[in-house]
Specification:
Elements (H helix, E strand, L loop, with lengths): L3 E4 L16 E4 L6 E7 L4 E8 L8 E8 L4 E5 L8 E8 L2 E8 L7 E2 L4 E4 L4 E2 L3 E9 L3 E3 L5 E4 L4 E9 L18 E8 L4 E2 L2 H7 L23 E2 L29 E2 L3 E10 L2 E6 L5 E5 L3 E7 L5 E9 L7 E3 L5 E5 L4 E7 L4 E2 L3 E5 L10 E5 L6 E6 L18 E6 L8 E2 L5 E5 L4 E6 L5 E5 L6 E4 L2 E4 L7 E7 L5 E4 L6 E2 L16 E2 L9 H7 L5 E3 L5 E6 L5 E6 L12 E9 L5 E3 L10 E5 L20 E6 L5 E5 L5 E8 L1
Parallel strand pairs: 1-14, 4-17, 29-33, 34-40
Antiparallel strand pairs: 2-3, 3-4, 4-5, 5-12, 6-7, 6-15, 7-8, 8-9, 10-12, 11-12, 13-14, 15-16, 18-20, 19-48, 20-51, 21-22, 22-23, 23-24, 25-26, 26-27, 27-28, 27-29, 30-31, 31-32, 32-34, 35-36, 36-39, 37-38, 39-43, 41-42, 44-45, 45-46, 46-47, 46-48, 49-50, 50-51
InterPro entries: 6-blade_b-propeller_TolB-like, Beta-prop_PDH, Cellobiose_DH-like_cyt, Quinoprot_gluc/sorb_DH_b-prop
Amino acid sequence: MRSVQVIGSAVALASHVYGQVASKASCDTTTKVCFSTYTDTESGMSFGISLPNTVADPYDAVIKITAPIKNAWAGLAWGGTMVWNPLTLAWANGKTSTVSSRFAFGISLPQAYADAEYTLLKGTVANSTHYTMVARCRGCTAWQANDDSRYVLNGTGTAEFAWAYGSSAVENPASNTSAFNVHAAFGKWTHDLNAARSSGFDAYVASNLLAAPPAATSAVSSTKPSAAPTTIVTSAKPSNSPIRKGIPASCSGAGSPKFQGVLASGWKATKVLGGLTSPRSIQFDSAGNMLVVQSGKGISYHVMNGDGCITSTKMLVSLNSLNHGIAMSPDGKTLYASSMTQVYSWPYDATAGSVGTRTTIITGMYNGGAHLTRTLAVAPHKPNLLVVSHGSNDNFDTAAGDPKTGRAIIKVFDLSALPSAGYNYVSGGWLAGYGQRNDVGITFDGNNMLWGVENSGDNFKRTVNGKSTDIHNNNPGEKLHYMGDVTKPNNDWYGYPTCFTVWNPPDFTDKKFAVGDWFVVSPNTTFNDDTCKQKCTAPALTFMPHSAPIDSKFDADYSNLYVTFHGSWNRSPTTGFKLVVVPFTKGSDGVYKPVAPLSSDKGYTDVFWNPDVTKCTGNGPSFSSGCFRPAGLAFDKSERLFMTSDTSSDGELWVLGKS
């Protein structure tokens, strides 16, 4: 059953902080309509809200957005955050303005949102200096949250809203589903909704309906990728990773690649499917069917033929809170998936492609923050053990240094002892390590030992004796962690939020470092670089800073670990946006480890990459990244490697292997 929660001055979301009311009310004595309007002087934008006098759920709202023409698009978040609330966007289109209904289920391009319906009203115009959009919205004042509850704005109180604008033109100004680039700036304010209530609301809307928008005076243009074959065979760098089965020359219905790519010598890549919605993790079932998490949509089911192409597709689970994590029990009969706050299980039938009744097995994960995905993995040798990775809530999540917060941590849960109400993530399970800022890609080696790849921090400065040096472009390094045996607690600390690894030693002017050494941002007599050596478990390898590794999978003989680099936003020039391979070896002690030492900056090689990474855009949602963005990985039974690219406006699925 879905619960109802009121958002406003009476009941507030735990992650929201309410401040002084910043909106001002004004009423028209003739129409009896009141607007409560907030103006941001720095951005030059204003956001007006008008409500009916009766504000019982469901109720309508009128939204008025005015912005300078230099702000290519302007947006309002009805819940005060980018994700999990309706978003109203507006942009100029000739002499009028376009309104776009959106909803973001993760840190990606917000999707078109059908549950909010807009009707344009008079006053919707654009000129050489400003544009204004006025519309009635049905569906903006209440919405389904990520825990399936219904959130309702308190129309007699206050609410925290957020604004944002972009500086790059949208892809197609005439389309209300156009793709657009990431925001250039954003902010929040507290809005007085009670002051927006008007007795003349319904009459005002009825008399100001805009039957048809004025014709646009400028032509609408759309830039599309040039036609290309579905198979890319450009070769450059060598790579030594065998995949033993053939790759199809093309797949019927897959379409042309959205972006071109370059392959290591001897490799082949074929597009298998396009038109996906932010595709993330991949899971094959016992019958060889492929399951794909589409963030904000659910899990899709794809029947494969013998050559690696898809013969049919359907939605297996429609649940928009799912955003990344997926796993399957070794017997293939139980499916697991995660939202930002919960982990679910379903009885699963691979042949029928169907699931049974959903059960919530883990709750209590952090609601909000910068890292929203929760990666899942089932221990291959212990099918009762489910591993769940949880990132930090911000770049520097100071409290996460204590594992009791349940953030920047990896935990293990024994499903054979599942409580009737499920586990609470913070208090339940045991540690597989903590102090991992965001280990999105976790996997097991041939000894059933756990590994993970960590996204490290952004915007770093090194401060010594009061002098700060900007080191963020090439430090800290991303990490490859070894967590080991998940059948017993691992209470090791992996450094975050205090200790980080060096990638580019010359950036440090106060002392001599090597690649992989520990450092702190502000050493002092109590805690310094050497303290990290004493207290932290070192990574097995470091990666280029800001590469953003988000998945990792071993090949069949565990001689290579494949890692997707999702791509940077905090580096100039950009980096990442590629698939790499880390050569592994099994030592005389039987333990797997990377061939390269921790001190190496050449411990991996490129397999599939974008031809000009400097043209890639990694700063959040983007339609014009100019690049594919590797995300999820999985091997099928024929040892072909499948990879998703979650470019939000047109997600793709690829199969790779030796040609």
